[in-house]
Amino acid sequence: MTANASIDAFIFDLGRVIVDWNPGYLLREIVPDEAELKHLVEEVLDLEWFRAVDAGYPLSKAIAERAEIYPDYAQAMQVYVERWPETIRGLFEGTVQIVRELHAAGHPLYVLSNWASETWARVEGDFAFLEFFDDVIISGHVGVAKPDAAIFELARDRFAVDPAKTLFIDDGLKNVEAARAVGFNAVLFETPEGLRRDLNELSLLV
């Protein structure tokens, strides 16, 4: 992307962009054996299957159904649900600082995040940084998840933004590409420092 002073609004993903979330933080404690953990993450709890939960399917029901297919992992999956907040180890303060700066400059800020409604309810109150945002779309609340084009169209309409003047920030390449397909400007998040460089190149931070 080239410098674009017409960009005004910003839409942020949460997990791995603002929130230091990683299921491995908890799963490594539940299943310390690396081979077993690999199987649990890549097959039993693979993210493609989990997208239904992100789109509103009840997490507890999904885990119960998964336990019937993988009974050897039933206890581990139940512990994962019960201790789910331990998948979060804080915030990326560098990203939060960028959010503060954009907010102070008067830019409209929004959140668009894939998040199960059950787990969101358990942590939402801990996220004081949400005060900087004008509106939040959680996939589990609206019944559709990234990278489905429908959730980007929903964000466009509900936030009342012009995609051509809005920058979407996400750590998932598929999500970035999907946002661009709907007309949004989008950057792939890797680190807070990298995001700051991207915004500086776009002349969007002083």
Structure description:
The protein is 49% helix and 14% strand. It contains eleven helices and seven strands. It has helices spanning 23-30, 34-44, 47-54, 59-69, 74-82, 93-104, 117-123, 139-142, 149-159, 173-181, 192-201, and strands at residues 9-12, 19-21, 88-91, 109-113, 135-138, 166-170, 185-188. It has a five-stranded parallel beta sheet, with helices on both faces. The chain has a two-stranded antiparallel sheet with strand order 2-3. α4 packs antiparallel against α5 and α6 runs parallel beside α11. It is globular and about 55 Å long. It starts with 8 loop residues before the first strand and ends in a 5-residue tail after the last helix.
Write the layout of secondary structure elements.
Elements (H helix, E strand, L loop, with lengths): L8 E4 L6 E3 L1 H8 L3 H11 L2 H8 L4 H11 L4 H9 L5 E4 L1 H12 L4 E5 L3 H7 L11 E4 H4 L6 H11 L6 E5 L2 H9 L3 E4 L3 H10 L5
Parallel strand pairs: 1-4, 1-6, 4-5, 6-7
Antiparallel strand pairs: 2-3
CATH topology of the largest domain: Rossmann fold
Average pLDDT, rounded to a whole number, is 92
Rg over C-alpha atoms, rounded to the nearest angstrom: 18 Å
Helix content: 40-55%
Distance between the termini: 18 Å
Instruction: Name the CATH homologous superfamily of the largest domain.
Output: HAD superfamily/HAD-like
| Uncertain residue segments | none
* Global geometry: globular
Beta-strand segment tally: 7
Order of helices and strands: EEHHHHHEHEHEHHEHEH
Strand content: 5-15%
- The number of distinct helices, counting runs of at least 4 residues, comes to 11
Label the CATH architecture of the largest domain: 3-Layer(aba) Sandwich
What profile does the largest beta sheet have?
A: 5 strands, parallel
Total of domains: 2
Strand order of the largest sheet: 5-4-1-6-7
- CATH C-level class of the largest domain: Alpha Beta
Structural classification: alpha/beta
